[in-house]
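Example S7 (structure tokens).
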């Protein structure tokens, strides 16, 4: 007889290191939320609670400017976390992680629409130009009529 597969939540909370890792991940998520509530403002989008080891909370930020701003408020954050969540917390360490910036930044929308006014200017320029550049300008101007059709 075949065994039925176990639910992932059951595997996480069984014996071994997985329950410890799941518990630490939940704690880090909770701390991340709480730190962002303490700081408020645009800095909250530029930081992430990365780790908690030996009573030291590690906060990562995208640039050194944001790290300096967090360092100015480090004592306030530490006191509030000690009072509300982790009395065993001894220090906060702020590290710069430039890779965090790529995760934080919003994707730029692709603007492939050309207005009819821009298309007429490009078409006029193409009429005054010869060779392959004129052909490319005419194709670019044609994008305006395609974008209006769709």
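Recovered sequence:
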């Amino acid at each position: 007889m075949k065994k039925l597969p176990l639910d992932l939540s059951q595997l996480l909370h069984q014996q071994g290191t997985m329950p410890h890792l799941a518990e630490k991940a939940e704690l880090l998520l909770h701390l991340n939320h709480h730190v962002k509530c303490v700081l408020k403002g645009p800095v909250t989008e530029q930081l992430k609670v990365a780790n908690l080891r030996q009573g030291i909370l590690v906060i990562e930020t995208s640039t050194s400017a944001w790290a300096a701003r967090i360092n100015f408020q480090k004592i306030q954050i530490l006191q509030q976390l000690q009072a509300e969540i982790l009395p065993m917390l001894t220090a906060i360490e702020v590290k710069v992680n430039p890779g965090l910036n790529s995760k934080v930044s919003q994707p730029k929308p692709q603007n492939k629409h050309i207005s009819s006014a821009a298309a007429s200017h490009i078409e006029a320029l193409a009429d005054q130009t010869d060779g392959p550049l004129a052909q490319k300008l005419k194709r670019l101007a044609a994008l305006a009529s395609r974008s209006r059709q769709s």
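Notes on this example. The CA atoms of residues 114 and 143 lie 7 Å apart.
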